[in-house]
Design a protein that fits this description.
Length: 226
């Protein structure tokens, strides 16, 4: 998992909770800024969103800990933060798994409401929701890695590839699903390649394409076609 600047994360979350539901990681002409503001839309630079990759998982684990202690208020708050981060990813202009992310975020918001009210009694309900969210993120990160690889954006491909690999592991952990040896090797290889690409290493297009493809197959296997 990556460590990020606390101030940057806090700023993003304040924006999210202020009622701005969607963010778009794209340059917006100045002439359209006023219109977007009136519609309740904020544009977030790509370099602000990218460090948030994998951050929902931190909040899922915090929620699980608070829930185990019987602290429903803080558990619900952490779940809502995770939901807000999924909404930010869904708001990317080039997000292809937008529906999956939005559905997972809504499920998290509903879960948070239930936790706060005390109607959620079992940690299994949290585990299932977190697994669903991580699977949606894995698909999203994988699609972003695939698109970046096609554009030969090695560093960005590395970020997304590592994020997808981490999310596969996280989804498997929450769901109690043990990856097969081949799946574990695929995830480990994708994570290693992602880290090296982030660091500036050069790989052939075929090697990157194979890693992305293999990881995609593992994601769909884990999702069971859902």
């Amino acid at each position: 998992m990556r460590n990020i600047c606390r101030a940057a994360l806090t700023t993003i979350l304040i924006v999210s909770f202020a009622g701005i539901a969607w963010a778009q990681a794209a340059a917006v002409p100045a002439s359209s800024a006023t219109a977007e503001a009136q519609q309740g839309i904020v544009t977030v630079p790509e370099n602000v969103l990218t460090p948030l990759i994998d951050q929902p998982e931190h909040h899922f684990h915090m929620a699980s800990r608070y829930f185990a202690r019987g602290d429903r208020t803080h558990a619900a708050a952490e779940i809502r933060v995770g939901a807000a981060l999924l909404k930010l990813e869904a708001g990317r202009h080039d997000a292809t798994n937008k529906t999956g992310l939005e559905d997972a975020a809504k499920h998290l918001d509903d879960l948070a409401a239930g936790v706060a009210k005390g109607t959620v009694k079992s940690p299994k309900e949290l585990n299932a929701a977190f697994a669903r969210a991580d699977l949606a993120l894995a698909r999203h990160y994988h699609e972003m890695a695939k698109a970046s690889a096609e554009r030969n954006e090695h560093e960005n491909t590395g970020y997304w590839l590592e994020g997808a690999a981490d999310s596969v592991d996280d989804a498997a952990e929450w769901s109690g699903h043990k990856l097969a040896a081949s799946g574990t090797a695929t995830v480990k290889g994708a994570r290693s390649l992602g880290t090296q690409l982030e660091g500036g290493a050069k790989w052939t297009a075929d090697e990157v394409k194979k890693s992305v493809s293999d990881l995609g197959s593992e994601i769909e296997s884990l999702g069971g076609g859902n």
